[in-house]
Task: inverse folding
């Protein structure tokens, strides 16, 4: 199935010198048309513009000299002089006179259906009409330049090669003029009268077949429908064209949804042009906003900034000057009576408005230059201007790819991480600007040119091989784009690798702080580039808690007998270095990577291995540290085997099994995850997900292994308790508390925190009971004994009988 491309190169072939290009010829492959061309001043062929000057007095004086009445020494007719005015006004009170009647022609296609296809389906954005028409004008200028090599007489009118755009917002018209090859009467019929016939395509074929075909041409359109993009915004289009091969100037006129067009000879001497094409668009009511000069300037800078010919727009300008102010009669009489003071003329500053041409595509595409000739300052300035950045990029890469697919590109690594909506999960960052033959096509991609984990990379890509109508469907299925993507990704990694190898380590530390998470995402999404991503990763480790190390540094520090790369996932370095899983590895001086970012564990699991060294999670079962003593293991199993079964019976379904651990030295026990289940860190992360699936959570955390340290005093006491009385309640409660404690120390979340707290308080009460206090009765006894009464003298009183008196 063919595809319609968005632009077509203008045709300058002598036999079919059409110049109106277009994009995408797919579903309409049976049709043929020529690219149409651009026009100069905003004055159309049927209306007369009158320019006005507003003086300080407020009087409006018409300036009957139109914008084309005066010629520039270099450009002749195409450069008008400055015309003072507050706005480019057209006399709207009188409608333009009807054009002369010309010969009527029928389109060589089913126009009503095809035009509807072009206007409503081919282009998704109305703004591209200006891009298409400017590209046609550029093609016309290029064709004239090529042909003038063998026919110098074509340049007998000394007119500069340029494109000029003028707007009339009051009448809703846009006029685009070029000084290119122009068209004869027959070429108008052949090219504009036959939709989807590309004169540019014919011209390129002629160049290819000719012995005189030299270097690559810059012609753009090849599909012959770009001219008809004018009908996206226009009800009527008038093309006035003069070919240097003809003495007459002709006018082509067509309307939207019409099945015919007219061609007539230009007879008005005021509207004659020495060479080229003038294209006048009569905008639809809803699209008259395009007739504002500011809107046109913005579109040109966005889409056609790097067209190789100067583009001028008709702009309103102003300058400040002082003018005299009429004196107040009362003040004048007072000054006359004084007669002593010298009179000073009163003035005020006013802004004088005028209209003049202004070139708006002064920026040159530096990607077309030799990288050796471009300075770092030029790269940085281009980056700031193109992407509206205020900081210089951290790195840049300028390269040209040749061979099967040819394109030029400049890539940048920003100095800071993107903010706002441009996050790592959003591939539509508008960071890559795609050009086709220096004409901007799009920056709205969904991972077609760069994977989303490299979406922070900014740059421009200019290809001559892509069709101009680069729709998302074409990008997704294009073999050219797939090749471009591979090479762009490869160059991006080379640029990042260059930062990592810099003598200044702070450069890569800065990059990793900003974009480290993006590369980790690449481990998950891009398996083809694991070998390029892995050397760029950085992690903390048990032997480097302050400074991150690379996987290459880890491998260099490995023990001779070490076979695997060990890691532990946690929420912080502090938590990781205090986990009980590390105890035996630290004793053996084995380095362990600390994965403290939420994405780290998934990234490492997707890498699986690095330089033939497997990644091993030390928090999972079947950890092999390379030290196996079968006799010792057999003795321990014989001694503690029944105790393990006893503990398993008590814990029930909470654990899959109870085993003797080879990873503990100071802790009594630890709870490890199943070999193929989630780790404690992953389980914590999955629980925190907003849309987490409870059923999958239960499935993935199903297997847990309780490992005990047979050399720890608590385990020895439990073993003794089992041998003496396996039903002892205190021993069974100790097992429950041991399990809950292992849950917490291993990074899991207790199922019943309140119950765990109660057990801890109970154990604390038993441990602290009577340590700093004594029973109440004993306390009173001790206090009474310790109290020494004062010595008192007693008086002996003799007994007296009751009722008697002494």
Result:
């Amino acid at each position: 199935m063919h595809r319609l491309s968005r632009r077509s190169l203008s045709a300058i072939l002598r036999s079919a010198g059409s110049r109106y290009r277009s994009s995408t010829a797919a579903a309409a492959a049976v049709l043929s048309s020529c690219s149409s061309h651009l026009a100069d001043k905003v004055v159309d062929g049927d209306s007369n513009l009158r320019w006005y000057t507003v003086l300080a007095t407020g009087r409006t004086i018409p300036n009957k000299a139109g914008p084309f009445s005066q010629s520039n020494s270099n450009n002749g007719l195409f450069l008008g002089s400055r015309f003072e005015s507050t706005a480019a006004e057209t006399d709207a009170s009188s409608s333009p006179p009807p054009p002369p009647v010309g010969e009527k022609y029928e389109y060589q296609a089913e126009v009503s259906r095809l035009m509807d296809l072009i206007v409503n389906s081919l282009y998704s954005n109305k703004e591209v009409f200006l891009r298409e028409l400017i590209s046609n004008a550029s093609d016309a200028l290029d064709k004239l330049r090529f042909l003038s090599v063998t026919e110098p007489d074509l340049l007998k009118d000394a007119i500069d090669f340029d494109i000029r755009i003028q707007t009339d917002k009051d009448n809703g018209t846009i006029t685009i003029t070029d000084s290119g090859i122009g068209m004869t009467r027959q070429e108008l019929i052949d090219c504009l009268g036959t939709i989807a016939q590309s004169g540019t395509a014919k011209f390129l074929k002629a160049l290819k077949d000719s012995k005189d075909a030299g270097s690559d041409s810059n012609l753009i359109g090849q599909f012959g429908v770009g001219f008809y993009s004018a009908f996206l915004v226009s009800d009527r289009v008038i093309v006035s064209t003069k070919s240097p091969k003809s003495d007459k100037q002709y006018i082509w006129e067509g309307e939207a949804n019409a099945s015919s067009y007219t061609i007539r000879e230009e007879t008005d001497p005021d509207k004659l042009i020495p060479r080229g094409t003038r294209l006048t668009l009569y905008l639809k009511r809803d699209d008259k906003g395009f007739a504002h000069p500011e809107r046109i300037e913005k579109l040109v800078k966005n889409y056609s900034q790097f067209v190789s010919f100067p583009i001028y727009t008709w702009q309103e300008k102003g300058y400040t000057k002082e003018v005299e102010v009429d004196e107040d009669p009362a003040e004048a009489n007072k000054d006359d009576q004084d007669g002593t003071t010298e009179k000073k003329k009163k003035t005020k500053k006013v802004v004088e408005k005028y209209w003049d041409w202004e070139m708006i595509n002064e920026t040159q595409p530096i990607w077309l230059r030799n990288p050796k000739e471009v300075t770092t300052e030029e790269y940085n300035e281009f980056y700031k201007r193109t992407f509206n950045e205020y900081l210089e990029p951290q790195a840049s890469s300028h390269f040209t790819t040749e061979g099967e697919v040819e394109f030029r590109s400049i890539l940048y690594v920003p100095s800071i991480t993107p903010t706002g909506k441009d996050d790592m999960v959003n591939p539509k960052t508008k960071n890559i600007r795609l050009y086709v033959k220096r004409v901007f096509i799009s920056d709205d991609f969904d991972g077609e040119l760069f994977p989303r984990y490299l979406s922070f990379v900014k740059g421009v890509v200019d290809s001559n091989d892509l069709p101009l109508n680069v729709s998302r469907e074409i990008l997704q299925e294009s073999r050219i784009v797939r090749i471009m993507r591979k090479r762009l990704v490869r160059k991006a990694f080379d640029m990042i690798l260059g930062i990592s190898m810099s003598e200044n380590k702070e450069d890569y530390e800065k990059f990793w702080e900003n974009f480290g998470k993006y590369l980790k995402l690449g481990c998950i999404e891009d398996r083809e580039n694991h070998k390029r991503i892995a050397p760029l990763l950085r992690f903390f480790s048990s032997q480097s808690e302050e400074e991150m190390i690379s996987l290459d540094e880890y491998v260099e520090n490995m023990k001779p007998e070490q076979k695997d790369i060990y890691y532990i996932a946690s929420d912080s370095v502090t938590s990781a270095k205090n986990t009980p899983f590390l105890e035996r590895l630290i004793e053996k001086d084995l380095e362990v990577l600390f994965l403290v970012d939420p994405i780290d564990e998934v990234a490492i699991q997707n890498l699986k291995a690095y330089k033939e060294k497997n990644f091993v999670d030390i928090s999972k079962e079947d950890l092999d540290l390379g030290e196996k003593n079968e006799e010792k293991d057999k003795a321990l199993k014989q001694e503690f085997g029944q105790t393990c079964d006893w503990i398993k019976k008590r814990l029930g379904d909470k654990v899959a099994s109870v085993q003797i651990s080879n990873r503990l030295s100071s802790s009594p026990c630890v709870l490890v995850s199943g070999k193929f289940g989630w780790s404690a860190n992953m389980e914590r992360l999955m629980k925190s997900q907003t849309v987490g699936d409870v059923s999958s959570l239960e499935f993935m955390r199903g297997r847990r292994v309780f490992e005990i340290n047979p050399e720890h005093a608590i385990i020895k006491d439990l073993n003794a308790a089992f041998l003496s009385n396996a039903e002892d309640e205190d021993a069974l409660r100790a097992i429950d508390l041991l399990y809950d404690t292992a849950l917490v120390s291993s990074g899991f979340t207790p199922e019943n925190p309140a119950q765990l707290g109660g057990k801890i308080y109970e154990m604390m009460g038993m441990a602290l009971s009577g340590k700093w206090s004594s029973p109440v009765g004993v306390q009173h006894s001790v206090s009474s004994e310790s109290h020494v009464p004062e010595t008192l003298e007693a008086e002996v009183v003799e007994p007296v009988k009751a009722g008697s008196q002494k």
